[in-house]
Amino acid sequence: MPYPSYFESFDVQQALADYPLGDAFLERYQGMSREQLRELQNQRFLKLMARGWEIPFYQRLWGDAGIKREDIQSLDDIEKLPVFSKSDIMQSVEKFPPIGDFSGLEGLAPEERPPVVFHTTSGTTGRPQPIIFGPRGREIQAMLVARSYRFMGLKPGATVQSTYGHGMINGGHYIREAVTRYTNALFLSSGTGLETRSAQQVQLMQDFGVNVLVGFADYIKKLASVAKDQGIQPGKDIPVDMIIGHLGQETRAALSEAWGGAKLYDWYGVADTGCVAAEGPDQGGLYVWEDAQYLELLDVDSDQPVTPGDTGNMVVTCLYKDDIYPVIRFNTCDITSEIVGENPFQLPFRRIRGFLGRSDNMVKLRGINVYPHGIGGMLAELSSFTGEYVCIAERDDSGRETLTVMVEVSDPVAGHPAIADQCAALLKLKLGLEVGVEIVSAGETARWTEIDRRQKPLRLLDRRFG
């Protein structure tokens, strides 16, 4: 029995019309009201819900919560639906191996199955999760990344080097698809330091005149040090003028300086959802692509909406993903807050501050929530701070939880008492409580963070339950 090939299975031109890029994006959305956007979101949400009811995973999730089809009449009813997270997906995989029952492929004969793209998560927070994409959802996901890059100011004919990982994980592959299909940039998929040695990556940059770097901030900063060790001046011998990555709360100034003053642009997304939000040329926060993503910020403990401006878990509904693995109220467990106020582009989209930490990687000390991923940004104003650190959570014999921050500095460690006192005072001011500080020389946290082997360095060693 014949079945359509990948690009025959959906209308690419219609997808580009529905989720425009470049000038067409601004023409569509500049001046649009929130009411008009809501109407568009509602249309896409109802189509998504119709698909969701066909998926065994959602039938079970919603049925267990007592939800019936007639209970959800519009986007206004979305809060009636339960949220789900990676743990629910992994339970599905365990119960229905090897790929779970959340994709929509269940029960289809081989000749009836559409083309799919299969990847996994990185496994940063546990066992890698299988993720399956249908052609339409996959391509719109790539279009949203390309929209982000072009909105940021990616120049025509740019040379982009990607340090995102490949292999089974999704990240590097869909960034390559976005750039090669929906921009005219020359794309170098160098991957991580394991896939292409750091010294070789630097040589590639110099040979091909790379002017845009994309990837995770920690490794991109490391590459600047590698270049200097080879006698190559970042920003001069390698003319990088734009860095696009997951910047989190790391020091932007230090990363920009390392690459000769390159402009930095942040964006946010996870494997399940694709690109959710991205910085614009104004660099005034990340614009949520609300024509494609419905983002809720919910309280970590109660799952209730937070007041605009307060921090909460990012819970994402992918309005565009109505073919394979619909995503409806997925709790990323990533923390952010909304930026309240108008934006200079007169876009109807809300803005967020980007990734502020993980709620499932949180340490609660004397009633205060501490997010290890946010510590780097707090220490950024210390001139001796290299940007590398790791938090160590422990529990003493009395059951009291403690946190020690191991901080790398460029100054001689012989002067550590003064530096440690500076760090401790700064963290006390910004956290509102005292934490321990241990000062170490540059490179000494690498065995804990695994920065040489991981795209996302570990920032928490949790010894409370060992």
UniProtKB/TrEMBL annotation:
One Pfam family hit: AMP-binding_C_2
Signal peptide region: none
Superkingdom of the organism of origin: Bacteria
AMP-dependent ligase C-terminal domain segment(s): 367-464
InterPro entries: AMP-bd_C_sf, AMP-dep_Lig_C, ANL_N_sf
Protein name: CoF synthetase
Organism from which the protein derives: Microbulbifer agarilyticus
